[in-house]
Design brief:
mainly alpha; two-stranded antiparallel sheet; MerR family transcriptional regulator
Length: 137
């Protein structure tokens, strides 16, 4: 654990994980999220500006909630979100299904390559250890 200053109020607190917010600001932000969520349930077709005006949340906060997967854009909503990789319209998160699958495949290939390299290095090390220069044949 480390000590940090709250990103919102500047108060020093014991940081563990997540957003660098003190417990009070974290609680306040969670309460605001619940207000936003309730507003969106009642006003499905609301624009980003309407949600911000009625709830007091910022556009940045709403976008973060969408990117974190805490909120989802409903079909027909005027609120839009784009894949960070290809720009395709998405409902929640950072990537569309296609880009997420490609990233997952690429990471799997990289992990396999690293494992194969380590196995090759271990085999080479094992062979080098079996050599004994003091024994004559």
């Amino acid at each position: 654990m480390e000590v940090k200053s709250c990103k919102r109020c500047g108060k020093i607190f014991q940081y563990i994980t997540g957003a660098p917010l003190c417990p009070k600001c974290k609680k306040d932000e969670e309460e605001l999220f619940q207000v936003v969520k309730a507003y969106l349930r009642k006003n499905v077709g609301a624009t980003m500006e309407e949600v911000c005006h009625e709830t007091g949340a910022s556009v940045k906060m709403l976008e973060r909630y969408l990117r974190e997967g805490r909120l989802e854009v409903m079909p027909g909503s005027p609120i839009t979100l784009s894949c960070e990789q290809c720009g395709t319209k998405i409902r929640t998160g950072r990537l569309c299904d296609k880009c997420r699958a490609k990233l997952s495949s690429d990471l799997g290939s990289a992990a396999k390559s690293i494992r194969d390299t380590r196995l090759t290095e271990q085999e080479a090390t094992a062979k080098m250890r079996s050599f004994n220069p003091g024994v004559r044949r």
